[in-house]
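Suppose you are handed a protein chain with no further information: no name, no annotation, nothing but its sequence. What can you learn? This example shows the usual starting point.
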Amino acid sequence: MAREQLEVLSKLDAAKTQLYHFTAIVIAGMGFFTDAYDLFCISLVTKLIGRIYYHVDGAPKPGSLPPNVAAAVNGVAFVGTLSGQLFFGWLGDKMGRKKVYGMTLMLMVICSIASGLSFGRDAKAVMGTLCFFRFWLGFGIGGDYPLSATIMSEYSNKKTRGAFIAAVFAMQGFGILAGGIFAIIISSAFKARFDAPPYEVDALGSTVPQADYVWRIILMVGALPAAMTYYSRTKMPETARYTALVAKNMEQAAADMSKVMQVEIQAESQKEVQAQNGQSYGLFSKEFLSRHGLHLLGTTSTWFLLDIAFYSQNLFQKDIFSAIGWIPHAQTMNALEEVYFIARAQTLIAICSTVPAIPYEHWTLRENRIGFVVLYSLTFFFANFGPNATTFVVPAEIFPARFRSTCHGISSATGKLGAMVGAFGFLYLGKSLEEMSGENEDGLETKV
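A reasonable first move is to predict its three-dimensional structure. Written in structure tokens, the prediction is:
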């Protein structure tokens, strides 16, 4: 009769919290930090891009992205992320977590830099380049979702596994915060060096030529945290659970875990591995659906519903802030000032937590905007405090090792489908309200 559990996995589950746990959190977490920075920094610069490339002489307000361009710029990364979650999630179960993790990281580094470049100087060339590379950036980001969660799950001990996976996910908030802080710094530096009048005073002069560097720098800086952790990721051994239960190499699993845990672990025989695995069944087989069908339905549906609200709120904060008067009207600012005010507002929200309750009209009044921001911040806090974290943690815990990365990828991809519903739905709803109210911003701006 085989032992109740393989020694290497038993030792891993029972291990005390050690340095390698925190090392894994930092390495996996920095990938997720980069994911958040890259996905959400675009919302900081879309208004600036509209001013630069869609200026219309004599228009009462600054240029803005046309609806189809705005939809593409905001949504193309989500399409790439969804695709990457499915592909790399599956590949992580086939080739191993470590190899595929390195692929996604390098793709993120290259495409972050390329997103700030352009093939030409006219609007079509710039937007085409931006959308092309943000799709592939999203593709790499998509792979990071299932792999970072799976690696942390498989490195952790049983007692602290959920907390450690949540710690990786918490880096999303820091990535959003870092994007806002960096945008404040870079816009302030350029504003101090290249001062310009407001749009209503000098429409053309309000956007200095050097402003074109600002959005490019903000996007390209996303490559730095990913590049800084690449070497550390290549030095991480493959997870013992994958090596033992999927690759079925007990000697290597024992050797890898002995090294990181600094204890001697004996490798079991192949027969014991087979006994531990039990009968084999395939993904989406009757056995799989019987055992895990409801689990997969639960992880996909909850992530889908959550991300409809979460991503629409994050991407279009600037439009909500404009609507309540927390950000000055576009025509009263120059281009760099607008970037600064948008970044400052979104950073404050990220610091506080990251919609208002009935009656809504009360909170749209200018004198009540502080209360609006407080309530708005609370929606982000409680979204992250509970459901947003658990949607990331649960798929990494409840599926077998040989399906774990794939099922996490499917779950997170469904979330990105919800993100696209929220992003595109909010964008076109905002345009409809804008036309009804007579405004001409690139997102939601109603008369208050």
